[in-house]
Design a protein that fits this description.
The chain is an alpha/beta fold. It has two domains: 5-56 and 390-398 and 422-443, Urease, subunit C, domain 1, CATH 2.30.40.10; 60-374, Alpha-Beta Barrel (TIM Barrel). Helix content is 32%, strand content 23%. It has 14 helices and 18 strands. It has helices spanning 78-88, 106-119, 138-143, 165-178, 189-201, 207-212, 216-233, 245-256, 267-271, 275-280, 293-305, 320-323, 345-354, 360-374, and strands at residues 5-16, 19-29, 32-38, 45-50, 55-58, 60-65, 90-95, 123-126, 128-129, 149-152, 182-185, 237-239, 261-265, 310-311, 392-402, 422-432, 435-439, 442-443. The chain is globular.
């Protein structure tokens, strides 16, 4: 008699970038996938989950979150961020390095990993930052397990100063030798500093003024400059949170020139235009800012053409006081940039699917498979291949709902411009390495179950 496997999820449509299989399911043993296919051909299981006719996809990968630990736990920590990830249908996250201390040396990286191993609900990685001070540490940071590297070209939360251009060229050469990818917060620092200083002097203090102080040219120039540097050095590079069609078109030109440049955009850039700054004020303040309707239309065209590889959130929790929630249209220079996104990213993207803006298969590719490929986690993450991690997300693509109250979210701080927005689609169940960590409204996984993801280099 054949021994039963640990888990079978059945009564669902399985969707991957290659297509969809109705009345199907997935079988899991020891945290790995052992079978995918028609439900009546799957083995017996110790536990069976009925997916209720919903859609099962490879676990969603969000490779751009600010979990704030170590040092800024009053905003968020590994436990609360990954609790939100589980509730949002996200099975793997990658944390950003602008913490306290910044993740600029191996012992700081190991501290961040250790904290994650102690409290994360889902699997995770972490980027290491490159500054003027740590170029020689790049090989050691790679050896310590950094998912990839990040350079902040423009001022942002944490005030990590950008390296000079010569240092960036040297950093690219060193990163190329590791086989890892180097990503950028791509805003020209001199441009945004000039306009912020000028606007303050002119008394331009509205939330929309913050957006206009960081013009599209600051993003596009930084992208084009880094692509030129990568063309020279042969480095693999990535553009985080591309906010504009102009920026995305610059990425496309780099790809056409043969540069290994990848890019992500965020749900808020696809959902909102800059009018949200006039409607919701500093709650929607973010860097780079949300753009006008023309830039958004061009960004959508770039997503549809493949110039934008991935979806990620730039999930960035801050307290209500830091976001000036009680006075959202007050002096924008007193507010801080960023908001949460882990629990709204799937609903936003499924709403676009419902509207016919993209197919389920295209969504899965950009929100699971492609980010896993870009950051060296594929096929262990981002696939439903036999022998890989049993990470999957079950979604109800037809569920209509409204985020009535942001405090229903699971992050430690929950400021978001998506409060009051209505969606079609929601994650119902989240499975990480064969364990159900979220099911229909409840985070049921244990803190500390999540583990660091090993990254492969090409």
């Amino acid at each position: 008699m054949t021994r039963a496997v640990d888990l079978v999820v059945s009564n669902c449509t399985v969707v991957t970038p290659a297509g969809r299989v109705p009345d199907a399911g997935v079988a899991v043993e020891d945290g790995t996938i052992v079978a995918v296919g028609q439900a009546d051909r799957l083995p017996e299981a110790d536990r069976t989950v009925d997916a209720g006719g919903n859609v099962l996809v490879p676990g969603i990968v969000d490779a751009h979150i600010h979990n704030r630990e170590p040092g800024l736990e009053y905003k968020e920590d590994w436990e609360s961020a990954t609790r939100a990830a589980a509730a949002g249908g996200v099975t793997t996250v990658v944390g950003m390095p602008n913490t306290d201390p910044v993740i600029d040396r191996p012992d700081h990286l190991e501290l961040k990993f250790d904290r994650g191993e102690a409290s994360a609900h889902v699997d995770f990685g972490t980027f290491a930052v490159i500054t003027s001070e740590n170029l020689e540490r790049i090989p050691a940071l790679e050896e310590a397990g950094a998912t990839g590297f990040k350079i902040f070209l423009g001022s942002t939360v944490g005030d990590v100063p950008p390296p000079g251009d010569g240092e960036i060229l040297e950093a690219m050469e060193r990163v190329r030798e590791t086989g890892k990818r180097l990503g950028f917060h791509e805003e020209n620092d001199e441009i945004i500093d000039h306009y912020e200083r000028t606007f303050k002097e002119q008394g331009k203090n509205e939330p929309i003024d913050h957006a206009h102080s960081r013009p599209v040219i600051a993003e596009r120039e930084a992208i084009e400059r880094m692509i030129t540097f990568a063309e020279e050095t042969g480095a693999k590079i990535h553009m985080y949170h591309v906010s504009s069609g102009s920026g995305a078109e610059a990425v496309a030109r780099g790809k056409e020139r043969g540069v290994d440049v990848t890019a992500e955009t965020c749900p808020h850039y696809l959902w909102f235009t800059e009018d949200v700054m006039r409607e919701k004020g500093n709650v929607a303040r973010i860097q780079p800012p949300i753009r006008d309707a023309d830039e958004q239309a061009r960004l959508w065209a770039a997503l549809e053409s493949g110039s934008i590889d991935c979806i990620a959130t730039d999930h960035a929790p801050h307290t209500d006081e830091e976001k000036k929630v009680d006075d959202p249209f007050g002096n924008t220079w007193d507010a801080i940039s960023g908001f949460v996104g882990l629990e709204t990213e799937i609903p936003v993207m499924l709403t676009f699917v419902d509207e016919g803006r993209l197919t389920l298969e295209e969504w899965v590719y950009r929100h699971s498979t492609r980010p896993a490929q870009v950051w060296g986690m594929y096929p262990q993450k981002g696939s439903l291949q036999v022998g890989t991690d049993a990470d999957f997300t079950i979604v109800d693509p037809d569920r209509e709902w409204t985020l009535e109250d942001r405090t229903d979210l699971h992050s430690k701080n929950c400021v978001t411009p998506f409060e009051g927005e209505s969606f079609v689609g929601k994650a119902t169940t989240t499975v990480v390495r064969g364990e159900v960590v979220y099911d229909e409204g409840d985070v049921v996984g244990e803190s500390g179950y999540g583990t660091r993801v090993d990254v492969e280099t090409a």
